[in-house]
């Protein structure tokens, strides 16, 4: 029998009837939530995990053909939910995990109460006169080549760019260490799958209520992307953060927690008042 707990290094903490599932982004692992989870431990059951190839996951479970699209990661999320019998989940996904969570909710909407997306993007590539994702194909090709030729150099270049907190260099260093701790081959494939993915056509199928948290100056996900998502996701709420960078749960945990709590409190109040079905 597949041991999902070992494969994805699942950790369950906190206490409460409602469940929050935190899903990390590319190049990270579940430890990236450490500045946020303490605020929810007293009132929620918290599910943390590492995608296969990240953190303390079981690297022997990695299969390049399975994880050649986001669907492999989607299936792993559903496996965890089913393994632990979770229901009515509040899924909080960072970056590409926002799309992984959305795709999982499309497959099994009955598992999810709502989604919270931090720095999400359905497509990172620009499409002239149609869509601004922030990157040209040549940009991504250069990043992938750099990962292949000099993984440590890629990590030291990418971390401060993505964190965008020059006044707090330790945060960039922390992210760089996270990047470099990953298996280079797996990380490169995950990067390729992430940056070349295009899930704009799936947005209309998402039914679960969604909060979009967009950073004000994100070098990975332009503001236009957050607004695009808000236009194309029905039942979505958009919040522009004061936080800069692509990792507000690390650089601005207090603002991140406050906006999540406000959203959950408001939606719970609406449900109590009978305004939500």
From TrEMBL:
A Pfam family of this chain: Abhydrolase_6
Domain AB hydrolase-1: from-to ranges: 21-258
Name of the protein described by the UniProt record: Alpha/beta fold hydrolase
Keywords tagged on the record: Hydrolase
Matches recorded under PANTHER family: ESTERASE-RELATED (PTHR43039)
Record GO terms (molecular function): hydrolase activity
Hydrolase found in the keyword field: yes
Matching Gene3D superfamilies: alpha/beta hydrolase
Family: Belongs to the AB hydrolase superfamily.
Domain of life (superkingdom): Bacteria
Keyword Hydrolase: yes
């Amino acid at each position: 029998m597949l041991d999902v707990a070992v494969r994805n290094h699942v950790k369950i903490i906190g206490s409460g009837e409602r469940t929050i599932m935190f899903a990390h982004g590319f190049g990270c692992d579940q430890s990236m939530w450490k500045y946020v989870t303490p605020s929810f431990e007293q009132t929620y059951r918290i599910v943390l995990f590492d995608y296969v190839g990240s953190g303390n996951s079981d690297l022997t479970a990695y299969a390049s053909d399975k994880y050649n699209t986001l669907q492999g990661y989607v299936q792993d999320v559903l496996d965890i939910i089913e393994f632990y019998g979770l229901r009515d989940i509040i899924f909080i996904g960072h970056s590409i995990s926002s799309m992984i969570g959305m795709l999982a909710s499309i497959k099994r909407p009955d598992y999810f109460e709502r989604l919270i997306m931090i720095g999400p993007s359905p497509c990172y590539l620009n499409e002239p006169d149609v869509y601004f994702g922030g990157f040209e194909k040549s940009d991504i090709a250069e990043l992938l080549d750099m990962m292949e030729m000099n993984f440590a150099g890629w990590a030291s270049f990418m971390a401060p760019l993505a964190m965008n907190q020059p006044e707090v260099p330790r945060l960039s260093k922390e992210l760089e260490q996270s990047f470099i701790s990953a298996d280079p081959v797996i990380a490169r494939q995950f990067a390729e799958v992430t940056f070349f993915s295009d899930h704009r056509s799936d947005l209309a199928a998402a039914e679960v209520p969604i909060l979009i948290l967009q950073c004000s100056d994100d070098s990975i996900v332009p503001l236009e992307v957050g607004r695009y998502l808000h236009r194309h996701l029905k039942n979505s709420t958009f919040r522009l953060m004061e936080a800069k960078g692509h990792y507000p749960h690390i650089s601005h945990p207090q603002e991140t927690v406050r906006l999540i709590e406000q959203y959950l409190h408001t939606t719970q109040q609406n449900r109590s008042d009978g305004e939500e079905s």
